[in-house]
Design goal:
Among the domains are: 121-278, Serine Threonine Protein Phosphatase 5, Tetratricopeptide repeat (Alpha Horseshoe), CATH 1.25.40; 516-678, Serine Threonine Protein Phosphatase 5, Tetratricopeptide repeat (Alpha Horseshoe), CATH 1.25.40. The protein has helices at residues 2-20, 51-88, 91-98, 100-104, 106-111, 166-169, 192-205, 210-223, 226-239, 246-258, 262-275, 280-292, 296-309, 314-367, 375-387, 409-443, 465-471, 502-505, 569-574, 586-590, 598-611, 616-630, 633-646, 653-665, 669-682, 687-699, 703-716, 724-744, 760-766, and strands at residues 27-29, 35-37, 371-372, 390-395, 401-406, 749-751, 772-777, 782-787, 790-794, 797-799. Helix 23 packs antiparallel against helix 24 (653-665). Helix content is 53%, strand content 5%. Residues 421-448 form a coiled coil.
């Protein structure tokens, strides 16, 4: 029984294997009953006894069949898609049938200008009368005056005038076209030739008249002078009563829009709408701005608001029609483009599969055997094989050879497919050319953003205006203090080799203790941040106004881990508890908020931090300064670590200098040197960093390095630290001379690094480690890194430290 079961299992396995075998028509029976292989069989191999070659040939055949199915399925989809394209015919006619009104009003689409001028003189507003303008009775003595708003009253900075905007900061470089369309917004009967003269006299009578300042801004817009227009508009904003402030804001937004700063114009116009949401001109102007920015949905919403307030406003009606048409045509063309892209993708895939197919067919034919026949048999078989889709020819020689080029159904299909791909690509090219022509026409409608438009982020809605305002202060808003500064040797007295003379070295004013500590604080203001407004205007406080009680100190979140490269465990341990306050730094904080005590300034910093009005690292630096003045250095380190976590790499030297200064205070000179060295790698120009590094080298008795870096600091700021830097330089040089004399008299201490040149550039170039410097010989080209340390000499014996 077991034997039968085993036999049955073997039979079943063989049966499964037989079922799994795929067959092919390879052998045929001839007319005379003889069995022979087909000449067009793929398995008529050059080497019939090569089983791996036969299996590989079978694999190729399977791939060819798979490609055939794939290509056929894709071809059916392509045929239907191209048939739809063919039904479109002339693209412009097709668009006209789907958007008849838009195509018939083509002239309006092409001529409408979304840079059209919008402004108002305020004469229609309640509370404003014609007498307020004082444009009558102006003497005309032949001399024409122009309204120079800069001479009315000084206005360097105001929180109401959007000074954080790049266009406002660079207003001297703005340019705009002449806005002659603004004439229609001037008071009735205004003589444009006398207009500027009248405004100038009006401003002489009342230099703070917001009406005249706004009219002056419009005058300069008509003239095409963006800078003078903005100077007048800025002053009109700060002098206008709150209920009328939207009018000069509308003027300002129009100037920025005309100067191609439309994104920033949107911010200003949102502010105008916040002041007066029921004024239709503001919504109209904002709609134009969003149209230029390509935000059609917001643009339509603005035009709807304008028409809701003033249904008869023709300009808003036309603008809305143009936007809807452009939106409709754009959607239609975008859908067509997407369809074209899809067809092109499929055609390229078809071409790729076709190329792979050809390679496989070529390989299959290569592996097939060329069959030898007698000449007479070739003559007889030739016509037969030709009728079967093969072209055969006889090759003469000792052994006649019948060579056949197979032209079966697959190859004919491949040829036709290649032709189809070529024709389809040409059709797509024709349609694409039509699309491009229509796109060119649409671009003349002046809706698409200009190539010269200056883009910047725009608020998602009017409520985001304050958020947009504050995010600007995450970056510097002015140039760094030492922008593009190059340190060069000066002509000052300290550059003289004989300075100071011996009598000065004998004065008691020299620093006796080489470790004497002077607190150093590198302010973010040096990097271009306007720090004073962060704890004043940006939190809604005036500099001289007291912050509301209660006052809390600006505690920074305690860090879970400190950067041990700069804030070592030794430093953390040393700063526990209260140490002597660094009162010499108090002026840095008190200068930010006049007549404010330290506790109140701490609350201001805390309010600014919670409100996120500026870069977090800058506010952390202010908080660290507060704690240094209070004598709580552990709290200061928490804030400095917080600053390190968020400060950009280019400004990392700011917190590093404070960390190094605290390290120096607690006697960790090596830690301070390492940290200051990193700060110098980031910025080798800052005079305070060079001074700090020089004082640390002096503490290590590296007089040459100390002289170099203190001189570098004085070359940038000769009055650095109220003359203390010059005193330090005098002290270092005197110590160096005294040290040299002791060596000459057989003294026991020398400076092993006296011939070194260790500028920040060389430190970076030679990748020096802590305690190393560069020793240069001759003209300074032959330089080597060396370890610097002090040595004692006893007679002829030299010992290490």
């Amino acid at each position: 029984m077991m034997v039968r079961l085993k036999s049955f299992r073997i039979f079943f396995m063989l049966f499964q294997a037989i079922i799994g075998i795929s067959g092919t028509t390879h052998w045929v029976v001839t007319e005379n009953g003889k069995i022979q292989p087909q000449l067009d069989s793929a398995f008529q191999m050059n080497q019939p006894n090569d089983l791996p070659a036969l299996l590989q040939q079978e694999k190729r055949m399977n791939i060819v069949q798979s490609l055939h199915k794939k290509i056929m399925a894709r071809k059916m989809v392509l045929d239907s898609q191209i048939a739809v394209l063919n039904s479109i015919g002339d693209l412009e006619s097709w668009l006209q049938s789907s958007n008849p009104e838009c195509i018939s009003n083509r002239k309006l689409l092409e001529d409408f200008d979304f840079y059209a001028s919008v402004a108002t003189d305020g004469s229609y507003r309640k509370g404003v009368t014609q007498k307020d303008y004082l444009l009558d009775g102006i003497p005309d003595d032949g001399k024409r005056a122009i309204p120079d708003c800069k001479k009315t009253f000084p206005l360097d900075f105001s929180m109401y005038t959007f000074e954080h905007l790049s266009a406002m900061r660079n207003r001297k470089n703005l340019s705009q076209h002449q806005e002659k369309g603004l004439i229609k917004y001037l008071p009735p009967g205004t003589d444009l030739n006398k207009f500027g003269h009248q405004i100038a006299h009006g401003l002489k009578r009342n230099s703070t008249s917001w009406l005249h300042l706004n009219l002056a801004a419009i005058y300069w817009r008509v003239k095409g002078d963006a800078f003078n227009a903005l100077e007048c508009a800025r002053r009109a904003i700060v002098t206008a009563p709150r209920q009328y402030r939207d009018i000069p804001l509308l003027t300002t937004g129009g100037i920025l829009h005309a100067a191609k700063y439309s994104a920033e114009a949107a911010i200003v116009l949102h502010a105008a709408i916040d002041y007066a949401p029921t004024q239709s001109h503001q919504h109209l102007a904002l709609g134009h701005v969003y149209a230029i920015l390509g935000d059609y949905n917001r643009s339509l919403a603005c035009y709807d608001n304008s028409l809701r307030l003033t249904p008869s406003m023709e300009q808003a009606k036309q603008a809305k029609f143009v936007i809807l048409c452009c939106q409709s045509l754009t959607e239609a063309l975008t859908a067509l483009h997407k369809r074209l892209d899809d067809i092109v993708t499929k055609l390229h895939a078809q071409q790729k599969d076709y190329t792979e197919w050809l390679k496989l067919e070529e390989k299959i034919l290569c592996e097939r055997m060329k069959t030898p026949f007698a000449a007479f048999r070739a003559h007889r078989l030739g016509p037969i094989l030709s009728n079967r889709g093969q072209s055969c020819m006889q090759r003469d020689g000792d052994d006649a050879m019948l060579s056949c080029q197979v032209a079966n159904d697959n190859q004919m299909f491949a040829h036709n497919l290649l032709v189809d791909i070529g024709v389809s690509l040409q059709q797509l090219k024709n349609v694409e050319n039509q699309v491009e022509k229509i796109n060119d026409r649409m671009s003349t409608a002046k809706v698409l953003p200009s190539k010269n438009e200056h883009f910047s982020p725009i608020p998602k809605n009017s409520n985001d205006r304050s958020t947009e305002f504050f995010t600007v202060f995450m970056e510097p808003t002015s140039k760094p203090k030492y922008y593009n500064f190059e340190i060069k040797k000066s002509n000052r007295e300290f550059e003289n080799k004989n300075w100071p003379d011996q009598s000065e070295c004998e004065k008691p004013s020299l620093l006796i203790d080489t470790k004497q500590y002077i607190p150093i604080y590198l302010s973010p203001e040096n990097k271009g941040y306007i720090v004073n407004i962060f704890i004043n205007e940006l939190i809604g406080m005036d500099s001289g106004k007291e912050h509301a009680l209660p006052w809390y100190p600006p505690i920074c979140q305690t860090s879970n881990s400190f950067d041990s490269k700069f804030i070592s465990p030794l430093l953390l341990k040393a700063t526990m508890g209260i140490s002597s306050p660094e009162s010499s730094l108090t002026s840095f904080l008190t200068s930010l908020a006049k007549n404010s005590e330290l506790a109140e300034i701490g609350q201001r910093i805390l309010t600014a931090t919670k409100s996120k009005v500026a870069a977090p690292w800058v506010l952390s630096m202010l908080a660290s300064l507060h704690w240094r003045i209070a004598g709580k250095f552990r709290n200061a380190l928490d804030c400095l670590q917080s600053a390190l976590n968020t400060v950009p790499n280019g400004f990392k030297d700011v917190p590093l200098v404070s960390i190094a200064s605290i390290s120096q205070k607690f006697g960790l000179i090596d830690d301070a040197l390492r940290t200051t060295k990193e700060a110098l790698r980031i910025n080798s120009i800052e005079p305070l960093t060079n001074y700090l590094y020089g004082s640390l080298l002096f503490a290590k008795k590296n007089y040459t390095g100390a002289v170099y870096h203190v001189k570098q600091s004085l070359r940038v700021d000769p009055e650095l630290i109220d003359g203390k830097a010059l005193t330090l330089l005098r002290t270092v040089i005197c110590h160096k001379r005294s040290n040299s004399r002791r060596i000459g008299n057989g003294g026991n201490e020398i400076e092993s690094c006296g011939m070194t040149y260790s500028s920040p550039e060389r430190i970076a170039k030679h990748d020096l480690n802590e305690g190393e410097t560069v020793l240069c010989f001759g003209d300074g080209r032959d330089c080597k890194p060396i370890q610097c340390f002090a040595m004692k000499m006893h007679n002829d014996e030299v010992k290490g430290p």
